[in-house]
């Protein structure tokens, strides 16, 4: 590798932060990442490729794409591996990009809240950024309509729920319809009908959840925020998550869950409350995983609840001591759903739990 690439790797190992490493070398973070990627390309190369580079005095593997290695007995064609950023790399870039964001001022706490109560405000399958045309589907749907649905639903839920000591807002995956500007699902590469650019949809998603949090701060003593990945926004959800984390980093009344993983699990007194997008496994397997992975919480609780989304229609079942519910989506039906005669209605809920008695009230808002 080149001396510049080696210096970039050494700086990253020393400082552990791309921002600090780049500052120590007097270069931009983009230049630092480029040098580290070039160094990694060399480190991962086949020994024969390294030997051939050494023979011709070539140092920078970053510019090497493919070629021939010729010996007396054979001629071998090689192609360098493509460098693709991991999910962890994406998360690191998002976090560093948001460093220094000015947090909002403190919001006055309400009086007379009940610490024995917790209200769950799930936001399943909002699909912000989806476009649906009224003559193809039951109704129009775009980014602005999606934002208004969430905010109106939150407002109605807040008006109808008791003054709990805490609210937990859970964006249960597919908050965003598209993961990036390609406008395709990440795994299956299905083409998506998208309203406007990904940049704007990300901005709307962040501002919508922020408005929801700040509305809840006027009602509840504490607000916890969870943003989970879905099959449509496998990495885009991190932008929303870290933006909210920076926005509320100095507000002791707001906590943003920043643990990696796709599960949310919370013990509240004798209640176990969990959620998952629902795209990776069936409900029975998710329940068994809960019992195994969170065995201590399972053993301390009497009332257990698991929420999933993904399929956009309601379904519920008692499974091995857990009430599993598949929640209706926030989003309207798109052309695909209409063509396949899906008839589920859009809905938002607020569910209130007592720490010793389990669920005590529920509000449903038709959207």
Give the number of DSSP strands.
Answer: 13
Chain-averaged pLDDT: 87
Strands of the biggest beta sheet: in what spatial order?
A: 6-5-4-3-12-13
Total of domains: 2
The rounded distance between the terminal residues' Cα atoms is 58 Å
Shape label: globular
How many alpha or pi helices? 11
CATH architectural type of the largest domain: 4-Layer Sandwich
CATH top level of the largest domain?
Alpha Beta
Cα Rg: 24 Å
CATH superfamily of the largest domain, by name, is Metallo-dependent phosphatases
- Sketch the topology as an H/E string, one letter per element: HHHHEEHEHEHEHEEEHHEEEHEE
* Named CATH topology of the largest domain: Purple Acid Phosphatase, chain A, domain 2
How do the strands and helices of this protein lay out in sequence?
Layout: H1 3-15, H2 18-25, H3 29-43, H4 47-55, E1 66-70, E2 75-79, H5 87-97, E3 114-123, H6 143-160, E4 164-171, H7 198-217, E5 222-227, H8 237-247, E6 254-256, E7 264-268, E8 271-275, H9 283-293, H10 295-300, E9 303-308, E10 315-319, E11 322-326, H11 335-339, E12 347-354, E13 358-366
Helix pairs in contact: 1-2, 1-3, 2-3, 5-8, 6-7, 7-8
């Amino acid at each position: 590798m080149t001396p510049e690439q080696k210096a970039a790797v050494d700086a990253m190992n020393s400082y552990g932060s791309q921002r600090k490493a780049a500052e120590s070398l007097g270069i931009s973070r983009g230049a630092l990442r480029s040098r580290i990627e070039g160094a990694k390309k060399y480190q991962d190369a086949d020994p024969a490729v390294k030997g051939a580079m050494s023979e011709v005095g070539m140092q920078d593997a970053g510019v090497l794409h493919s070629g021939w290695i010729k010996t007396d007995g054979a001629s071998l064609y090689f192609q360098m591996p493509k460098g693709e950023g991991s999910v962890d790399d994406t998360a690191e870039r998002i976090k560093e990009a948001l460093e220094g964001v000015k947090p909002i001022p403190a919001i006055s706490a309400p009086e007379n809240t009940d610490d024995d109560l917790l209200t769950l405000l799930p936001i399943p399958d909002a699909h912000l950024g989806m476009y649906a045309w009224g003559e193809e589907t039951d109704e129009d749907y775009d980014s602005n309509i999606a934002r208004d649905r969430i905010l109106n639903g939150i407002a109605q839920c807040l008006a109808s729920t008791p003054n709990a000591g805490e609210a937990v807002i859970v964006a249960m995956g597919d908050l965003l319809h598209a993961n990036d500007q390609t406008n395709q699902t990440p795994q299956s590469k299905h083409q998506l009908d998208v309203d406007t650019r990904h940049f704007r949809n990300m901005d709307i998603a962040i501002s919508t959840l922020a408005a929801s949090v700040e509305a809840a701060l006027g009602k509840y003593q504490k607000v916890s925020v969870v943003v989970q990945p879905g099959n449509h926004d496998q990495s885009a959800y991190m932008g929303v998550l870290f933006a909210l984390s920076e926005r509320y980093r100095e507000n002791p009344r707001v906590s943003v869950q920043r643990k990696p993983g796709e599960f949310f699990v919370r013990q509240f007194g004798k209640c176990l409350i969990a959620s998952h997008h629902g795209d990776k496994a069936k409900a029975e397997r998710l329940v068994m995983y809960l019992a195994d992975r969170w065995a201590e919480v399972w053993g301390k609780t009497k009332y257990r609840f698991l929420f999933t989304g993904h399929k956009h229609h309601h379904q519920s079942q008692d499974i091995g001591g857990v009430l599993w519910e598949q929640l209706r989506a926030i989003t309207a039906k798109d052309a695909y759903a209409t063509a396949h005669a899906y008839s589920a209605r859009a809905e938002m809920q607020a569910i209130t739990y007592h720490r010793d008695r389990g669920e005590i009230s529920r509000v449903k808002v038709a959207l």
